[in-house]
Structure formats: structure tokens, C-alpha cells
Amino acid sequence: MEMKDIIKNLAESQWDEMVAIRRHLHAHPELSFEEEQTAAYIAEKLTEYGIPHTTNVGGHGIVALIEGNKPSTKTIALRADIDALPIEEKNEVGYCSVNKGVMHACGHDVHTTSLLGAAKILFHIRDRFHGTIKLIFQPAEEKLPGGASIMIKEGVLKNPEVEYIYGQHVLPQLETGKVAFRSGLAMASCDELFITVKGKGGHGAVPHLAVDPILIASHIVIALQQIVSRNTNPIMPSVLSIGKFIANGATNIIPEEVKMEGTFRTFDETWRAQAKEHITRICQSVAESMGGSCEVRIDHGYPFLKNDESLTNQAFALAQEYLGEENVEEMPTRMTAEDFSYYSQEIPACFYRLGTGNTARGITSPIHTPTFDVDENCLKTGAGLMAWIAYRQMV
After folding, report:
1. Architecture category of domain 3-186+304-393 in CATH
2. Least CB-packed of 45, 125, 205, 216 within 10 Å?
3. Of 231, 229, 220, 218, whose CA–CA distance to 278 is shortest?
4. C-alpha 327 chain-centroid distance
5. How far apart are CA 224 and CA 209, in angstroms?
6. In the prediction, which pLDDT does 113 show?
């Protein structure tokens, strides 16, 4: 039997177990930097599989090693993130989150389960490949500064030194059984904006005696849009969005201040730095010109994610071998962000998309929504393809 078929059979045979793992993780989500029980569960499974591992790396991170039975100094890494989001789940399923206000709405339960499944497969066939496969179960992807940056600082890509790394992410818009790749620039950088506009409060009936921070903030929101429309090179994708606007007045009260929060995203580090200077200058100058003041804090977030072209093209071809050409697609560039980007800044990396949707069954809700769910058949693809790619790179 060909190794491809062996891996497929192993993925199929452990599907029930993977479903149980995924449902346990889904029912017991934990927020970024709080993944203590999640990590303990992962460690328990790795111990059960006989795979040596180290805990408490970069917080609640876990690093496991699978040594091939043939001598080699080559090491590659497979990564999954393990944290959840502050969302109240609205799905009516038996594995619904039991932790109020916390939900695996970004599919990290699928990522973790797939990596555990791939680990079990690779450990089973370790006599068929050489070198070392490092498994990275990473905490805190959803919250700055990102668990990836912390684990890198603690040496996750060293001892043994990793040559390249793979990761995957759910995509509910893509049907289960399919995957998608993007070579080169794939995901944007992401900075978080915190803007406080200060004026002078007063009675809504006598606005001339106040300095209206709502009016000032409204002008700032509009003025900020010129950064993308008139300061960005038209061929450079950029997004500036204000997603939170709090003006705690009343029907007849002009408040003292307005607080706004938003995001800026792009694909070029030089322009990224310039844009942040523009943001600060515009906010402050607009506020001052209207008699108020403005405080701007910009939290430097994740860098842009660049998939190594050679590595990604190889993975694309291997996915076609494993799944069939009709089930492997090309992804457009996305303005979403991921802390996997930190790995891609250090070593050649490939981050691809795993189809989890099932239109016929109504499994279509986007990530980061309270009704997000997956067709659990995706676990066969998630575990099997990751194991196949790793195996083929190590023979």
C-alpha cells in the first residue's frame, strides 16, 4: 500500500477519536494566556500517544518532538493555536461551550485536534522518515503581543533548529475536503488604535458653551479615511477601520470626551510606520483646530504574513497529490491578521486554509461569530494532509 493511502486510512480510523477531542476542546474553551486546562488536556493526549513533550513554553504552550528512525539533522515544525475568543456561543449542540462568554469561534479547537491527529499518524509511521518533526501547540494567538512572538523569544525555533514551518486555519467559506493556498504576501499586519477625544461638556441646548467631542470625533473618523484614499500607494492594500465609538452623553448632554478604537492593516513595514504617524497627526490636528484635544495610542500588532513561495508551491503540489487537484484552490490576499506571521518573519513558512463548511447542512457561519461551527469531516483532511506534507518533506 502506498504511504498516501496508509496516512488516509490512519486519519479515517482515528476520526471518531478526533471528533471526541474536538468536542471536548470546543466545550471547554479558554481565553488567551489562560489556557491552563487546554494545555493539560493536550499534554495528556501526547503522553497517551507516547510522544515526548515540554510544557509551559511561552505561557501555556507545548512543544513535542517526533524523531524519525532514520538519521538526519533536518527539523521542520507544525503549529496549531489553542486559545479561544470572548464570545457567547449560540449554537444548540451537545458540545456547546460550558464557559460563559468564551467560545472557540475561530476554529482553534479544529487546529489543535488536527495537529494531535497528525502527531499520532506521524508517530505511527516514524520508521518511514528521517529527521525531527517539532509540534508547536501555541497559546494566545488572539491577543497581543501574540503567543508566537513569546514562544520564538523562548527559543521554540531552536534546539533543534527548525528549517521551515507549516500551519493551517479553518475557512468556513470553503467546503470540507478542500484546502486553499496563497504564495507570497498572504495576510496583513495589524495595529490597534485607541483614540480619546477631549472637549468640554455641557447642555445640549447651549452647544456654543461647550466643545463638542462628538463632533470633533466625527470629523476625525472622516479625516482618517484620507490616509487610505490619498496617502497610500494605490497598489498597496491598506485598511483603516474604526469599530468602536463611545460618547457617553444623553439626549441633552454633550459629554466631556469620546473614546474610539479601530485597526490599521497593510503589507509594507515602511508604509505601516508612516501611516501611524499620519494617524496621530490627523487626530491631534483636527481636535486642536476645533478647540479640543486628542490622545492617541497605537498598539503595534502582528507583522504581515508572507508565505515562502517555494515552500508553498511544494505544499500546493503535495495537497493535490493527497486530495486531488479539484480540491486544492488558490487563495486571494486577505486583510485579516495572524500571529503565525512572526514565524514567517523568521524562517520559510506556509500557512494554508482548511475547508470546514458544508452548505447543504447549513454549516456556513463565519469565524468570530456566535454560531460558528464546522463539518467535523474536516478533521480527516486537517490531520491527514498535515501528516502527508510533513512526511513527504522528511523522506
Report:
1. 3-Layer(aba) Sandwich (3.40)
2. 205
3. 231
4. 23
5. 27
6. 98
CB atoms within 10 A of CB 189: 22
Cell of 346: 523568521
* Count helices and strands in the chain by DSSP H and E runs: 10, 16
pLDDT at 269: 95
| Sheet (strand 328-330) strand order | 53-57, 61-67, 130-138, 70-81, 164-175, 349-357, 179-181, 328-330
Residue 248 and residue 250: Cα distance in Å, rounded? 7
Confidence of residue 70 (pLDDT cuts 50, 70, 90): confident
pLDDT in tens, 234-248: 999 999 999 999 999
How is residue 267 written as a grid cell?
503589507
Mean pLDDT of 353-374: 98
Transcribe 142-205 into DSSP letters: TSTT-HHHHHHHTTTTTTTTPSEEEEEEEEEEEETT-EEE--EEEE---EEEEEEEE-B-EETT
Upper half-sphere CA count for residue 274 (Cβ side, 13 Å): 12
∠ CA 288-290-294 to the nearest 5 degrees? Answer: 40
Cα maximum dimension of the chain: 84
Residue identified by cell 510606520 is 273
β-bridge mates for residue 165, sequence order: 77, 349
Give φ, ψ of 135 to 5 degrees: -105, 125
Residue extents of the structural domains in the chain: 3-186+304-393, 191-299
Do the strands 130-138 and 164-175 form a parallel or antiparallel pair, or are they unpaired? unpaired
78 sits in which H/E element: strand 70-81
Burial of 360: CB neighbours in 10 Å, binned 0-12, 13-18, 19+:
exposed
**Does residue 71 carry a pLDDT above 80?**
no
Q: Is residue 292's pLDDT more than 80?
A: yes
As annotated, the active-site residues are: 83, 141
C-alpha cell, 183? 504564495
**CATH 3.30.70.360 assigned to 191-299:** yes
Q: What is the pLDDT of residue 1?
A: 78
**Torsion over CA of 313, 315, 317 and 321, rounded to 10 degrees?**
180
Pairing state between β 70-81 and 164-175: parallel
pLDDT tens for 139-180 read 999 999 999 999 999 999 999 999 999 999 999 999 999 999
